[in-house]
Amino acid sequence: MNNPEKIQKLITLREQAKAGGGEKRVAAQHEKGKLTARERIHILLDEGSFEEYDMFVQHRSHDFGLEKQTYLSDGVVTGHGTIDGRVIYVYAQDFTIFGGSLSETHAQKICKIMDQAMKVGAPVIGINDSGGARIQEGVKSLAGYAEIFERNILASGVIPQISAIFGPCAGGAVYSPALTDFIVMSENSSYMFVTGPKVTKAVTGEVISTEALGGAQMHSSRSGVSHFMVKDEEAGLMLMRKLISYLPQNNLEDPIQTECSDPIDRLEDDLNEIIPENPNEPYDMLDVILAVVDRQDFLEVHSQYARNIMVGFAKFNGMPVGVVANQPNHMAGVLDIEASRKAARFVRFCDCFNIPIVTFVDVPGFLPGSAQEFGGIIIHGAKLMFAYGEATVPKITITLRKSYGGAHDVMSSKQLRGDLNYAWPSAEIAVMGAKGAVEILEGRALKEIEDDDERAAYIEKKSNEYNEKFANPYEAARYGYIDDVIEPRNTRFRIIRGLQTLATKKEMNPPKKHANIPL
Ligand code: HXC
Fold first, then answer.
1. Distance, CA 158 to ligand 1 centroid (Å)?
2. Ligand 1 neighbours (beta carbon < 6 A)
3. Candidates 3.50.50.60, 3.10.690.10, 3.90.226.10, 3.40.50.2000; correct CATH number of 269-427+472-502?
4. CATH of segment(s) 4-244
5. Taking residues 93-115, what's their average pLDDT?
6. How far apart are CA 85 and CA 97, in angstroms?
7. Whose Cα sits closest to atom 46 in ligand 1?
């Protein structure tokens, strides 16, 4: 064979690989409103940047007549490319080949790029669209999954890992995405569950649809498994590009600061008026966040789940930060089990990857009641406390209004190594609200008052006294627990100054194998 023939063979093989499972299956994929693996990668990465590995890999199975069915690339497209010029490793399962199912060689391809991403120190994005373990390969497929899981675990906290679910993801296969940092699910075309509707019905008798059991809506609003729900795949791919822009390449690097045209000393007069007169009246914390971050740009994570707390990424003077904020507009911003877990995971992610944390506090406390206690609010609340307390990244806390009880301590307080703790003049930092305090402190006196009006007047008088003394920022500021009381409209400037000052912060935790966070 002379050289032109050899080159022609290469070209033919490449075309064969790119054809995936063939025209019919590609058409079927498109009919379902889904893109192929290569189309997804094309949208995700910078134009022309993708370098594919292992295009010529084929499975090695001889069972169930599989030796007669071979496809180049074996159901997963792997390689690397760039997003905004930064190296990203990627794999995308190809549903047109054996339903994207995972064989021994398919797993080896994924492991190869994960290993290389670890050596290079670059993020991995996995696009999942698969019927799960390749049934014909039996335990080899299970072993392949476990190889991936182990790499997900070792890579955790070293390189960012993002999973997109753009099709089926069932059985043990769900655990690779679950081990990664973020999961993106496309609406109406993706699902995740450990056991599907058929097995569920057989084992428990429960009849439930695929969508209700493991669809994007459920996982984004109820289970919290999914961090982002997107209307279609293209939106998901663009979202992952944006998400990457806030992250460093690995745990030894800082996130990349970009040019910022938004003035750092922009005064937001509306913030001086945003806290309602009535302390029980809600307002939208999102308005506060959008007013202070660069160009009103906030990438909210878990926006539909545990809405009493908001978490997400933003930039201040071009510097990426993680934002955590109680949301008075939903359940008065109370901390419950779900909110604690959601925020704890986010805080830990930021700390892994050197992303400073800015916390906006307006929290009435932990949610009381048997449902919370039976569900273990103690252990879940402790997760958030643990996450803030162990975090060594710069931490800036702004207390807008309520900061009561244990929730005060938890929400990035000074004693949990908050670096800069500012409060607005409307802050109320105390052990509990006036009503609860008066009922406990004045219980005996109240028992002796029989007349209802007299009783109400007494409660009001005592509440006012309590508020006067405790429901303000100055008591905490007197002890140095609050570094300064700031004018709300100047919040953006104070945060940016703080971040600039803290950019060189160095803080270490005591040496240990790893901590024992209350799981
Ligand atoms: C081999 C598979 C496959 C699998 C699908 N295919 N899943 N081949 N192993 N697991 C093949 C089909 O034979 C078919 O081949 C093609 O992929 C497309 O599948 P369809 O069924 O035609 O597609 P669709 O109707 O869209 O249904 C998709 C599906 C269904 C819901 C994913 O295929 C399905 O239920 N598959 C089995 C799922 C499953 O039980 N997997 C094992 C889970 S246990 P042709 O040649 O016709 O195109 C597991 C354990 C992991 O994963 C443990 C890790 C620790």
1. 33
2. 25, 98-99, 101, 131-135, 142, 145, 168, 170-173
3. 3.90.226.10
4. 3.90.226.10
5. 97
6. 31
7. 98
Contact present, 297 and 243 (Cβ < 8 Å) = no
Q: Whose CA is nearest to atom 51 of ligand 1?
A: 172
Q: Is the pLDDT of residue 235 over 80?
A: yes
Among 34, 64, 98, name the best residue to mutate to test ligand 1's pocket (greatest count of ligand atoms within 8 A of Cβ): 98
131 CA → ligand 1 middle, Å: 4
Of 178-182, 223-227, 466-470, give the lowest mean pLDDT range: 466-470
State what percent of residues in the chain have pLDDT above 70: 100
Cα–Cα distance measured from residue 240 to residue 255, given in angstroms and rounded to the nearest whole number:
16
CA angle, 244 as apex, 293 and 92 as ends, to 5°? 150
User: Between the CA atoms of 325, 330, 332 and 335, what dihedral angle is there, to the nearest 10 degrees?
Assistant: -60
Give the residue numbers marked as catalytic: 171-172, 406-407
| SS3 at position 494 | helix
Residue 1: predicted pLDDT: 62
Q: pTM for the whole thing?
A: 0.96
Out of 64, 101, 105, mutate this one to test ligand 1's pocket (max ligand atoms within 8 Å of CB): namely 101
The region of weakest confidence among 43-52, 244-253, 382-391, 433-442 is: 433-442
Is the predicted pLDDT of residue 436 greater than 90, yes or no?
Answer: no
Mean pLDDT of 21-48: 97
Going from the Cα of 170 to the center of ligand 1, the distance in angstroms, rounded, reads 10
* Mean pLDDT, rounded, for 19-44: 97
Please, are residues 269 and 199 in contact by the beta-carbon 8 Å criterion? no
Atom of ligand 1 nearest to the CA of 69: 46
